[in-house]
Specification:
It comes from Pseudozobellia thermophila. The protein has 507 residues and is of the alpha/beta class. It folds into two domains: 373 residues, 3-Layer(aba) Sandwich (Rossmann fold); 130 residues, GMP Synthetase, Chain A, domain 3, CATH 3.30.300. Strands 6-3-7-8-9-10-11-15-14-13-12 form an eleven-stranded mixed beta sheet, sandwiched between helices. A four-stranded mixed beta sheet has the order 2-1-5-4. Helix 14 crosses helix 15. The longest helix is centred in the first third of the chain and has 17 residues. The chain is globular, with a radius of gyration of 23 Å. The termini are far apart.
Length: 507
Protein backbone atom coordinates (compact mmCIF):
# COMPACT_ATOMS: atom_id res chain seq x y z
CA UNK A 1 0.00 0.00 0.00
CA UNK A 2 1.33 3.47 -0.90
CA UNK A 3 1.29 4.86 2.65
CA UNK A 4 3.63 7.79 1.97
CA UNK A 5 1.93 8.49 -1.34
CA UNK A 6 -1.51 8.59 0.30
CA UNK A 7 -0.14 10.93 2.96
CA UNK A 8 1.32 13.33 0.39
CA UNK A 9 -1.81 13.19 -1.77
CA UNK A 10 -3.90 13.90 1.33
CA UNK A 11 -1.73 16.91 2.14
CA UNK A 12 -2.20 18.24 -1.41
CA UNK A 13 -5.96 17.80 -1.14
CA UNK A 14 -5.93 19.62 2.21
CA UNK A 15 -3.96 22.48 0.65
CA UNK A 16 -6.69 22.79 -1.98
CA UNK A 17 -9.33 23.26 0.70
CA UNK A 18 -7.22 25.90 2.44
CA UNK A 19 -6.25 27.72 -0.75
CA UNK A 20 -8.09 30.90 -1.67
CA UNK A 21 -7.98 31.87 -5.34
CA UNK A 22 -6.76 35.45 -5.51
CA UNK A 23 -7.65 38.18 -7.97
CA UNK A 24 -4.81 38.04 -10.50
CA UNK A 25 -5.02 41.73 -11.50
CA UNK A 26 -4.93 42.84 -7.86
CA UNK A 27 -2.03 40.47 -7.17
CA UNK A 28 -0.13 42.04 -10.06
CA UNK A 29 -0.60 45.56 -8.71
CA UNK A 30 0.73 44.38 -5.34
CA UNK A 31 3.73 42.75 -7.03
CA UNK A 32 4.59 45.97 -8.87
CA UNK A 33 4.29 47.99 -5.66
CA UNK A 34 6.64 45.61 -3.86
CA UNK A 35 9.14 45.68 -6.74
CA UNK A 36 9.21 49.48 -6.74
CA UNK A 37 9.48 49.64 -2.95
CA UNK A 38 12.39 47.18 -2.84
CA UNK A 39 14.33 48.83 -5.68
CA UNK A 40 13.56 52.47 -4.79
CA UNK A 41 17.11 53.19 -3.60
CA UNK A 42 18.93 51.47 -6.45
CA UNK A 43 20.50 53.54 -9.19
CA UNK A 44 17.68 52.47 -11.52
CA UNK A 45 14.98 53.29 -8.98
CA UNK A 46 16.39 56.76 -8.35
CA UNK A 47 16.78 57.46 -12.07
CA UNK A 48 13.12 56.71 -12.77
CA UNK A 49 11.56 58.15 -9.63
CA UNK A 50 10.29 55.00 -7.92
CA UNK A 51 9.52 57.02 -4.75
CA UNK A 52 7.22 59.26 -6.78
CA UNK A 53 5.57 56.27 -8.49
CA UNK A 54 4.84 54.68 -5.11
CA UNK A 55 2.89 57.78 -4.05
CA UNK A 56 0.83 57.84 -7.27
CA UNK A 57 -2.82 56.82 -7.29
CA UNK A 58 -2.30 55.61 -10.87
CA UNK A 59 0.93 53.71 -10.18
CA UNK A 60 0.67 51.17 -13.02
CA UNK A 61 -0.10 53.82 -15.64
CA UNK A 62 2.65 56.15 -14.42
CA UNK A 63 5.15 53.28 -14.30
CA UNK A 64 4.52 52.65 -18.00
CA UNK A 65 5.07 56.32 -18.77
CA UNK A 66 8.22 56.68 -16.70
CA UNK A 67 10.21 53.54 -17.58
CA UNK A 68 11.12 52.67 -21.19
CA UNK A 69 11.09 49.18 -22.70
CA UNK A 70 14.36 47.26 -22.49
CA UNK A 71 15.59 44.27 -24.42
CA UNK A 72 18.70 42.42 -23.21
CA UNK A 73 21.09 44.66 -25.12
CA UNK A 74 19.54 47.88 -23.80
CA UNK A 75 19.36 46.57 -20.24
CA UNK A 76 22.98 45.44 -20.36
CA UNK A 77 24.45 48.49 -22.11
CA UNK A 78 22.78 50.97 -19.76
CA UNK A 79 22.63 49.05 -16.48
CA UNK A 80 23.70 45.41 -16.19
CA UNK A 81 27.23 45.97 -17.49
CA UNK A 82 27.93 47.74 -14.18
CA UNK A 83 26.64 44.68 -12.30
CA UNK A 84 28.95 42.52 -14.44
CA UNK A 85 31.80 44.84 -13.41
CA UNK A 86 31.09 44.19 -9.72
CA UNK A 87 29.05 47.24 -8.70
CA UNK A 88 26.19 47.04 -6.18
CA UNK A 89 22.63 48.39 -6.08
CA UNK A 90 22.25 48.96 -9.81
CA UNK A 91 18.81 47.60 -10.75
CA UNK A 92 18.20 45.54 -7.59
CA UNK A 93 19.65 45.86 -4.08
CA UNK A 94 23.09 44.31 -3.66
CA UNK A 95 24.63 42.05 -6.28
CA UNK A 96 23.26 38.77 -7.70
CA UNK A 97 24.83 35.50 -6.62
CA UNK A 98 24.16 33.93 -10.02
CA UNK A 99 24.09 34.77 -13.70
CA UNK A 100 21.99 32.68 -16.09
CA UNK A 101 23.80 32.08 -19.37
CA UNK A 102 21.44 32.03 -22.30
CA UNK A 103 22.26 32.08 -25.98
CA UNK A 104 18.60 31.40 -26.78
CA UNK A 105 17.91 30.49 -30.39
CA UNK A 106 20.23 32.95 -32.09
CA UNK A 107 23.51 31.12 -31.51
CA UNK A 108 25.19 34.39 -30.50
CA UNK A 109 27.47 34.89 -27.51
CA UNK A 110 25.76 33.94 -24.28
CA UNK A 111 23.68 36.50 -22.46
CA UNK A 112 24.48 36.92 -18.76
CA UNK A 113 21.16 37.50 -17.03
CA UNK A 114 21.23 38.36 -13.29
CA UNK A 115 19.61 35.80 -10.97
CA UNK A 116 19.17 37.19 -7.46
CA UNK A 117 18.38 35.26 -4.27
CA UNK A 118 14.87 36.67 -4.58
CA UNK A 119 14.57 35.15 -8.08
CA UNK A 120 15.83 31.76 -6.86
CA UNK A 121 13.10 31.87 -4.20
CA UNK A 122 10.55 32.96 -6.82
CA UNK A 123 11.41 30.01 -9.06
CA UNK A 124 11.23 27.65 -6.08
CA UNK A 125 7.86 29.05 -4.97
CA UNK A 126 6.45 28.66 -8.49
CA UNK A 127 7.70 25.07 -8.51
CA UNK A 128 5.89 24.43 -5.23
CA UNK A 129 2.70 25.93 -6.68
CA UNK A 130 3.05 23.60 -9.63
CA UNK A 131 3.48 20.58 -7.34
CA UNK A 132 0.37 21.63 -5.41
CA UNK A 133 -1.53 21.81 -8.71
CA UNK A 134 -0.89 18.09 -9.22
CA UNK A 135 -3.90 17.54 -6.95
CA UNK A 136 -6.03 18.52 -9.97
CA UNK A 137 -4.73 15.73 -12.22
CA UNK A 138 -6.20 12.72 -10.39
CA UNK A 139 -2.89 10.89 -10.11
CA UNK A 140 -2.74 7.66 -8.08
CA UNK A 141 -1.25 7.83 -4.60
CA UNK A 142 1.78 5.73 -5.53
CA UNK A 143 2.87 8.40 -8.04
CA UNK A 144 3.96 10.58 -5.11
CA UNK A 145 6.46 7.92 -4.01
CA UNK A 146 8.28 7.76 -7.36
CA UNK A 147 11.44 9.57 -8.39
CA UNK A 148 11.60 12.55 -10.74
CA UNK A 149 14.11 12.82 -13.60
CA UNK A 150 15.02 16.47 -14.22
CA UNK A 151 17.15 16.75 -17.34
CA UNK A 152 18.72 20.15 -17.79
CA UNK A 153 22.14 21.68 -18.08
CA UNK A 154 25.04 20.87 -15.78
CA UNK A 155 24.83 21.93 -12.13
CA UNK A 156 28.62 22.38 -12.14
CA UNK A 157 28.42 26.17 -12.19
CA UNK A 158 31.42 28.31 -13.07
CA UNK A 159 32.67 30.98 -10.69
CA UNK A 160 33.30 34.45 -12.13
CA UNK A 161 33.68 37.73 -10.24
CA UNK A 162 32.31 36.27 -6.98
CA UNK A 163 29.19 34.92 -8.72
CA UNK A 164 28.26 31.54 -10.18
CA UNK A 165 27.29 31.17 -13.84
CA UNK A 166 25.35 28.49 -15.70
CA UNK A 167 22.07 27.88 -17.48
CA UNK A 168 18.92 28.47 -15.46
CA UNK A 169 18.07 24.75 -15.31
CA UNK A 170 21.50 24.10 -13.74
CA UNK A 171 21.08 26.97 -11.29
CA UNK A 172 17.61 25.73 -10.31
CA UNK A 173 18.79 22.12 -9.88
CA UNK A 174 21.72 23.26 -7.74
CA UNK A 175 19.20 24.94 -5.40
CA UNK A 176 16.85 21.98 -4.96
CA UNK A 177 15.49 21.97 -1.38
CA UNK A 178 16.85 19.25 0.91
CA UNK A 179 13.50 17.53 1.30
CA UNK A 180 13.29 16.95 -2.46
CA UNK A 181 16.79 15.58 -3.00
CA UNK A 182 15.75 12.00 -2.26
CA UNK A 183 13.30 12.11 -5.18
CA UNK A 184 15.56 13.96 -7.61
CA UNK A 185 17.36 12.10 -10.37
CA UNK A 186 19.90 11.78 -11.92
CA UNK A 187 21.29 13.04 -8.61
CA UNK A 188 24.00 15.52 -7.74
CA UNK A 189 27.00 13.56 -9.03
CA UNK A 190 25.66 12.86 -12.51
CA UNK A 191 24.00 16.30 -12.81
CA UNK A 192 27.42 17.92 -12.42
CA UNK A 193 28.84 16.20 -15.52
CA UNK A 194 29.33 18.98 -18.07
CA UNK A 195 29.53 16.81 -21.21
CA UNK A 196 25.95 16.02 -22.16
CA UNK A 197 26.69 12.76 -23.99
CA UNK A 198 28.70 11.48 -21.04
CA UNK A 199 25.95 12.53 -18.62
CA UNK A 200 23.28 10.70 -20.64
CA UNK A 201 25.44 7.58 -20.81
CA UNK A 202 25.66 7.57 -17.01
CA UNK A 203 21.89 8.00 -16.84
CA UNK A 204 21.49 5.00 -19.15
CA UNK A 205 23.83 2.92 -16.98
CA UNK A 206 21.97 3.79 -13.76
CA UNK A 207 18.45 3.67 -15.24
CA UNK A 208 17.56 0.16 -13.93
CA UNK A 209 18.25 1.32 -10.35
CA UNK A 210 15.66 4.08 -10.46
CA UNK A 211 11.87 4.10 -10.22
CA UNK A 212 11.07 7.12 -12.35
CA UNK A 213 7.51 8.44 -12.08
CA UNK A 214 7.98 11.81 -13.79
CA UNK A 215 10.24 13.49 -16.35
CA UNK A 216 11.02 17.19 -16.68
CA UNK A 217 12.93 18.99 -19.42
CA UNK A 218 12.92 20.38 -22.94
CA UNK A 219 11.18 17.87 -25.28
CA UNK A 220 13.98 17.43 -27.84
CA UNK A 221 16.58 16.55 -25.20
CA UNK A 222 14.19 14.37 -23.19
CA UNK A 223 13.41 12.40 -26.36
CA UNK A 224 17.08 11.94 -27.13
CA UNK A 225 17.81 10.82 -23.57
CA UNK A 226 14.97 8.30 -23.61
CA UNK A 227 16.19 6.92 -26.93
CA UNK A 228 19.73 6.52 -25.54
CA UNK A 229 18.38 4.64 -22.50
CA UNK A 230 16.30 2.39 -24.76
CA UNK A 231 19.23 1.71 -27.10
CA UNK A 232 21.60 0.97 -24.20
CA UNK A 233 19.24 -1.65 -22.76
CA UNK A 234 17.78 -2.85 -26.09
CA UNK A 235 14.22 -1.83 -25.17
CA UNK A 236 11.12 -1.43 -27.30
CA UNK A 237 9.82 1.43 -25.18
CA UNK A 238 10.83 3.30 -22.03
CA UNK A 239 8.12 1.73 -19.85
CA UNK A 240 10.03 -1.55 -20.02
CA UNK A 241 12.59 -0.04 -17.67
CA UNK A 242 10.49 2.66 -15.93
CA UNK A 243 7.05 1.01 -15.71
CA UNK A 244 5.72 3.64 -13.28
CA UNK A 245 6.44 6.65 -15.50
CA UNK A 246 3.18 8.63 -15.44
CA UNK A 247 3.94 12.35 -15.94
CA UNK A 248 6.07 14.46 -18.26
CA UNK A 249 6.52 18.14 -17.45
CA UNK A 250 7.45 19.89 -20.66
CA UNK A 251 9.06 23.30 -20.70
CA UNK A 252 10.64 25.97 -22.83
CA UNK A 253 8.97 25.17 -26.15
CA UNK A 254 5.58 24.07 -27.41
CA UNK A 255 5.09 20.33 -26.96
CA UNK A 256 2.80 19.90 -29.99
CA UNK A 257 5.49 19.26 -32.64
CA UNK A 258 7.07 16.58 -30.42
CA UNK A 259 3.87 14.80 -29.38
CA UNK A 260 3.91 12.07 -32.00
CA UNK A 261 7.63 11.23 -31.78
CA UNK A 262 7.51 11.41 -27.96
CA UNK A 263 4.54 9.05 -27.70
CA UNK A 264 6.35 6.57 -29.96
CA UNK A 265 8.88 6.07 -27.14
CA UNK A 266 6.20 5.10 -24.60
CA UNK A 267 4.51 1.84 -23.80
CA UNK A 268 1.37 3.53 -22.47
CA UNK A 269 -0.07 7.06 -22.31
CA UNK A 270 1.19 9.49 -19.70
CA UNK A 271 0.06 12.91 -18.47
CA UNK A 272 1.81 15.85 -20.14
CA UNK A 273 1.95 19.12 -18.17
CA UNK A 274 3.29 22.31 -19.77
CA UNK A 275 5.44 24.86 -17.95
CA UNK A 276 6.99 28.20 -18.88
CA UNK A 277 10.39 28.56 -17.22
CA UNK A 278 12.84 30.96 -18.86
CA UNK A 279 16.22 32.36 -17.83
CA UNK A 280 14.37 35.42 -16.57
CA UNK A 281 11.96 33.55 -14.30
CA UNK A 282 9.22 30.94 -13.86
CA UNK A 283 6.30 32.55 -15.69
CA UNK A 284 3.48 30.01 -15.86
CA UNK A 285 2.44 26.38 -15.55
CA UNK A 286 -0.50 24.20 -16.51
CA UNK A 287 -2.78 24.15 -13.49
CA UNK A 288 -5.58 21.83 -14.59
CA UNK A 289 -6.10 18.90 -16.98
CA UNK A 290 -9.08 20.38 -18.85
CA UNK A 291 -6.74 22.59 -20.89
CA UNK A 292 -3.15 22.66 -22.08
CA UNK A 293 -2.99 26.41 -21.42
CA UNK A 294 -0.79 27.66 -18.59
CA UNK A 295 -1.68 29.91 -15.67
CA UNK A 296 0.54 32.95 -15.18
CA UNK A 297 2.11 33.05 -11.72
CA UNK A 298 0.80 36.47 -10.73
CA UNK A 299 1.79 36.68 -7.05
CA UNK A 300 5.45 35.74 -7.16
CA UNK A 301 7.83 38.59 -7.95
CA UNK A 302 7.13 39.04 -11.67
CA UNK A 303 5.00 41.89 -13.02
CA UNK A 304 3.57 41.31 -16.49
CA UNK A 305 2.64 43.73 -19.26
CA UNK A 306 1.22 42.92 -22.66
CA UNK A 307 1.85 44.83 -25.90
CA UNK A 308 -0.53 44.08 -28.79
CA UNK A 309 1.44 42.16 -31.42
CA UNK A 310 0.84 44.44 -34.38
CA UNK A 311 3.26 45.34 -37.19
CA UNK A 312 3.25 49.04 -36.30
CA UNK A 313 4.64 48.26 -32.84
CA UNK A 314 7.39 45.80 -33.86
CA UNK A 315 10.75 46.84 -35.29
CA UNK A 316 12.75 44.76 -37.78
CA UNK A 317 14.95 43.26 -35.05
CA UNK A 318 11.94 42.13 -33.01
CA UNK A 319 12.13 44.96 -30.47
CA UNK A 320 9.27 47.34 -29.69
CA UNK A 321 8.91 50.91 -30.88
CA UNK A 322 9.18 53.28 -27.88
CA UNK A 323 5.57 54.45 -28.08
CA UNK A 324 4.01 50.96 -28.24
CA UNK A 325 1.07 50.74 -25.82
CA UNK A 326 1.16 48.12 -23.08
CA UNK A 327 -1.77 46.65 -21.19
CA UNK A 328 -2.14 45.33 -17.67
CA UNK A 329 -3.71 41.98 -16.88
CA UNK A 330 -6.98 43.80 -16.21
CA UNK A 331 -7.03 45.19 -19.76
CA UNK A 332 -6.22 42.21 -22.02
CA UNK A 333 -8.62 40.26 -24.22
CA UNK A 334 -8.69 36.53 -25.08
CA UNK A 335 -7.45 35.28 -28.43
CA UNK A 336 -5.17 38.25 -29.18
CA UNK A 337 -1.39 37.94 -29.61
CA UNK A 338 0.66 40.02 -27.17
CA UNK A 339 4.36 40.67 -26.73
CA UNK A 340 5.23 39.71 -23.16
CA UNK A 341 7.01 42.38 -21.08
CA UNK A 342 8.20 41.67 -17.53
CA UNK A 343 9.64 43.43 -14.47
CA UNK A 344 11.18 41.11 -11.88
CA UNK A 345 12.89 40.55 -8.55
CA UNK A 346 16.11 40.01 -10.53
CA UNK A 347 16.19 43.68 -11.55
CA UNK A 348 14.78 43.37 -15.07
CA UNK A 349 12.54 46.36 -15.83
CA UNK A 350 9.93 46.46 -18.62
CA UNK A 351 12.02 43.72 -20.20
CA UNK A 352 11.21 42.04 -23.51
CA UNK A 353 11.62 38.33 -22.97
CA UNK A 354 11.09 37.75 -26.71
CA UNK A 355 7.92 35.64 -26.55
CA UNK A 356 4.42 36.31 -27.77
CA UNK A 357 1.44 34.90 -25.89
CA UNK A 358 -2.34 34.77 -26.18
CA UNK A 359 -4.90 34.46 -23.40
CA UNK A 360 -7.25 31.51 -23.52
CA UNK A 361 -8.99 32.51 -20.27
CA UNK A 362 -8.47 36.04 -18.92
CA UNK A 363 -10.23 35.44 -15.58
CA UNK A 364 -7.94 32.50 -14.85
CA UNK A 365 -4.91 34.32 -16.36
CA UNK A 366 -4.28 31.29 -18.59
CA UNK A 367 -2.10 31.68 -21.68
CA UNK A 368 -0.46 29.87 -24.54
CA UNK A 369 2.90 30.80 -26.03
CA UNK A 370 2.26 31.69 -29.66
CA UNK A 371 5.76 32.44 -30.90
CA UNK A 372 8.87 34.59 -30.76
CA UNK A 373 8.98 38.25 -31.75
CA UNK A 374 12.13 37.63 -33.80
CA UNK A 375 10.78 34.49 -35.44
CA UNK A 376 7.53 35.87 -36.78
CA UNK A 377 7.63 35.08 -40.49
CA UNK A 378 6.50 38.26 -42.20
CA UNK A 379 9.18 38.96 -44.82
CA UNK A 380 6.62 39.04 -47.63
CA UNK A 381 3.49 39.82 -45.63
CA UNK A 382 2.63 36.21 -44.75
CA UNK A 383 2.31 37.01 -41.01
CA UNK A 384 2.92 33.47 -39.74
CA UNK A 385 3.48 32.95 -36.02
CA UNK A 386 5.27 29.89 -34.69
CA UNK A 387 2.06 28.30 -33.45
CA UNK A 388 0.67 28.40 -37.02
CA UNK A 389 3.87 26.77 -38.27
CA UNK A 390 3.57 24.11 -35.55
CA UNK A 391 -0.02 23.43 -36.65
CA UNK A 392 1.15 22.97 -40.24
CA UNK A 393 3.82 20.46 -39.23
CA UNK A 394 1.34 18.48 -37.12
CA UNK A 395 -0.95 18.43 -40.17
CA UNK A 396 1.88 16.79 -42.14
CA UNK A 397 2.38 14.20 -39.42
CA UNK A 398 -1.27 13.19 -39.60
CA UNK A 399 -1.61 13.36 -43.38
CA UNK A 400 1.51 11.30 -44.17
CA UNK A 401 1.68 9.27 -40.92
CA UNK A 402 5.21 10.47 -40.16
CA UNK A 403 7.09 12.00 -37.23
CA UNK A 404 8.55 15.51 -37.62
CA UNK A 405 9.85 16.57 -34.19
CA UNK A 406 12.09 19.34 -35.58
CA UNK A 407 11.88 21.90 -38.36
CA UNK A 408 13.15 25.29 -39.44
CA UNK A 409 12.43 27.60 -42.38
CA UNK A 410 13.38 30.87 -44.03
CA UNK A 411 11.76 33.31 -46.42
CA UNK A 412 14.63 32.87 -48.87
CA UNK A 413 15.23 34.76 -52.11
CA UNK A 414 16.04 32.44 -55.04
CA UNK A 415 16.78 34.05 -58.41
CA UNK A 416 14.97 37.19 -57.35
CA UNK A 417 11.83 35.42 -56.05
CA UNK A 418 10.86 34.69 -52.44
CA UNK A 419 10.17 31.12 -51.36
CA UNK A 420 9.42 29.67 -47.96
CA UNK A 421 12.24 27.10 -47.70
CA UNK A 422 11.57 24.43 -45.09
CA UNK A 423 13.85 21.83 -43.54
CA UNK A 424 11.89 19.04 -41.86
CA UNK A 425 13.56 16.73 -39.36
CA UNK A 426 12.26 13.24 -40.13
CA UNK A 427 13.57 9.77 -40.93
CA UNK A 428 10.53 9.07 -43.11
CA UNK A 429 10.90 8.79 -46.87
CA UNK A 430 8.28 11.11 -48.34
CA UNK A 431 8.41 13.03 -51.59
CA UNK A 432 9.47 16.63 -50.70
CA UNK A 433 7.18 17.99 -53.41
CA UNK A 434 4.15 16.40 -51.78
CA UNK A 435 5.20 17.79 -48.38
CA UNK A 436 5.61 21.26 -49.89
CA UNK A 437 2.16 21.14 -51.52
CA UNK A 438 0.55 19.96 -48.28
CA UNK A 439 2.21 22.72 -46.23
CA UNK A 440 1.19 25.32 -48.79
CA UNK A 441 -2.45 24.22 -48.95
CA UNK A 442 -2.78 23.97 -45.16
CA UNK A 443 -1.37 27.45 -44.55
CA UNK A 444 -3.53 28.97 -47.29
CA UNK A 445 -6.57 27.64 -45.47
CA UNK A 446 -5.35 28.55 -42.00
CA UNK A 447 -4.01 32.06 -42.56
CA UNK A 448 -5.57 34.79 -44.70
CA UNK A 449 -2.39 36.86 -44.89
CA UNK A 450 -0.40 33.85 -46.10
CA UNK A 451 -3.01 33.20 -48.80
CA UNK A 452 -2.72 36.82 -50.00
CA UNK A 453 1.10 36.67 -49.93
CA UNK A 454 1.02 33.53 -52.10
CA UNK A 455 -0.91 35.44 -54.73
CA UNK A 456 1.67 38.23 -54.75
CA UNK A 457 5.28 38.28 -53.49
CA UNK A 458 5.62 34.72 -52.17
CA UNK A 459 6.43 32.48 -55.12
CA UNK A 460 6.08 29.10 -53.46
CA UNK A 461 7.21 26.53 -50.90
CA UNK A 462 10.25 24.27 -51.02
CA UNK A 463 10.98 21.38 -48.66
CA UNK A 464 14.05 19.34 -47.79
CA UNK A 465 14.13 16.54 -45.25
CA UNK A 466 17.05 15.66 -42.98
CA UNK A 467 17.34 13.27 -40.01
CA UNK A 468 16.33 14.84 -36.66
CA UNK A 469 19.87 14.16 -35.42
CA UNK A 470 21.10 16.97 -37.69
CA UNK A 471 19.05 19.43 -35.62
CA UNK A 472 20.48 18.03 -32.39
CA UNK A 473 24.02 18.40 -33.71
CA UNK A 474 23.28 21.97 -34.82
CA UNK A 475 22.13 22.85 -31.30
CA UNK A 476 25.07 21.01 -29.74
CA UNK A 477 27.82 22.30 -31.99
CA UNK A 478 28.97 24.82 -29.37
CA UNK A 479 28.67 22.45 -26.39
CA UNK A 480 25.05 23.46 -25.79
CA UNK A 481 23.49 19.99 -25.77
CA UNK A 482 20.86 19.27 -23.20
CA UNK A 483 20.34 22.75 -21.77
CA UNK A 484 17.86 25.54 -22.43
CA UNK A 485 18.63 25.36 -26.15
CA UNK A 486 15.66 25.90 -28.43
CA UNK A 487 15.85 25.24 -32.13
CA UNK A 488 15.13 28.41 -34.11
CA UNK A 489 11.96 27.79 -36.09
CA UNK A 490 12.43 30.79 -38.38
CA UNK A 491 15.80 32.02 -39.63
CA UNK A 492 17.01 35.15 -41.37
CA UNK A 493 18.82 34.70 -44.66
CA UNK A 494 22.34 35.02 -43.19
CA UNK A 495 21.58 32.47 -40.48
CA UNK A 496 19.90 30.20 -43.05
CA UNK A 497 23.02 30.17 -45.21
CA UNK A 498 25.02 29.09 -42.15
CA UNK A 499 22.42 26.35 -41.51
CA UNK A 500 22.52 25.07 -45.09
CA UNK A 501 26.31 24.93 -44.99
CA UNK A 502 26.14 22.96 -41.75
CA UNK A 503 23.56 20.55 -43.18
CA UNK A 504 25.72 20.01 -46.27
CA UNK A 505 28.63 18.90 -44.07
CA UNK A 506 26.56 16.87 -41.62
CA UNK A 507 24.25 15.11 -44.07
Amino acid sequence: MAILGNLIKGMLSASEMLAVEGNAAEEQESVLRELLKTARNTRFGQAFGFDRLLESKTMERDFRKAVPFHDYEAMTDKWWQDIHSGENDITWPGRPDYFALSSGTTGKTSKRIPVTDAMVKSIRNAGIQQVLALRNFDLPADFFEREIMMLGSSTDLEERNDALEGEISGISASNIPFWFQGYYKPGKEIAQIDDWDQRVRRIAEKAPEWDIGALSGIPSWIELMLQKVMDYHNLKHIHEIWPNLQVYTSGGVAFGPYEKSFNALLGKPITVIDTYLASEGFMAFQQRPETDAMKLVTDNGIYFEFVPFKPEYIQADGSLVPHAPSLTLAEVEPGQDYVLVISTVAGAWRYLIGDTIAFTDVDRAEIKITGRTKFFLNTVGSQLSVNKLDDAVQHLEKKFDIQVPEYTLCAHRIEGEFYHCWYLGTDAKVDPGQLADALDEFLKGANKNYRVARSKALEGVRVKTVPPAVFHEWSGRKKKKGGQVKMERVMGEERFQEWESFVGKAH
